[in-house]
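Minutes, structural biology subgroup

Action item carried over from last meeting: produce the structure token record for AraC family transcriptional regulator (Paenibacillus agricola). EB confirmed the sequence was re-checked against the source entry. Recorded below for completeness.
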Amino acid sequence: MSEEILKQQVELAKLIERHSGLEGVYETAIPSLFFIHRSNVTRPVYRVYKPCLCFIAQGLKEILLAQERFEYGPADYLISSMNLPVIGRVIKASSDAPYVSFKLEFTQSQILEVLNDSEIQITPKENAKRAMYVGQIELPILDAILRLARLLEQPKDIPYLAPIYTREILYRLLQGQYGVALAQIAMEGSSTYRIRDAIEQITNNCEKPLRIEELAETASMSISSFHRHFKEVAAMSPIQFQKQLRLQEARRLLLAESADAADVAFRVGYESASQFSREYSRMFGSPPRADIKRLKEKYDHNVHA
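Output recorded by EB:
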């Protein structure tokens, strides 16, 4: 790692600590930019990643996408180019050297704008690629990240400069190691683009029965080709993808509403409460009631600690 990259990482870590402070995820004044601060290693956290760039200024994290494990730290960046259900865990953090990270969400439209306005040449004929990847951080990318974060010190500049620096970050990423894979989500005709549409359909209607024939038709693929490309992008089958979305949504509802587990099971699309309980236990380690009780006790402890 170069001395200049190390110097910028240290500055970014201090910026994040100064503008987050509290434990957890902090939404900044810059649109779609979040800072994360953790003083300890964490238990697994289940969530759906939107398209985003994640960069760790200090600490270490692992992400599980189905059975695939991604580990990244200050030498790397992680990109999720689609909505993906993942399990994340901070694996290196302490009160003296907390885990601090930068997360910038983006859209397919922003990628397309950068491609249209630049001279970057990408072919849409590429096969579908995994929608999550870890690349080695490069100075031009980190420099743009740092300039975007510095705007929090000059809030009056955010409305004008934040969109410019965000576009520069995307431009640098598109020129980097995984530029082709990132560009595919915005290019009509690519298999990745067509799978992205199917993923959005499942995400927006996860409580409804999965109709593979309709999804394959939407993607203009045969059923076998659709299954193959979907698994290449998401690292899991469409049914597994939907199941993870349903169970994450069920957990959110149980926490937010103190609702009955059977009622929540039906709301997220399960026809059998017993099947829901089995699959919930398999994913989260304990049945719904016990799991929610533990989460609420942990929350109460943190609030009153």
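Discussion: Residues 247-304 form a domain with the Arc Repressor Mutant, subunit A fold (CATH 1.10.10).
Next step: EB to file the record with the rest of the batch.
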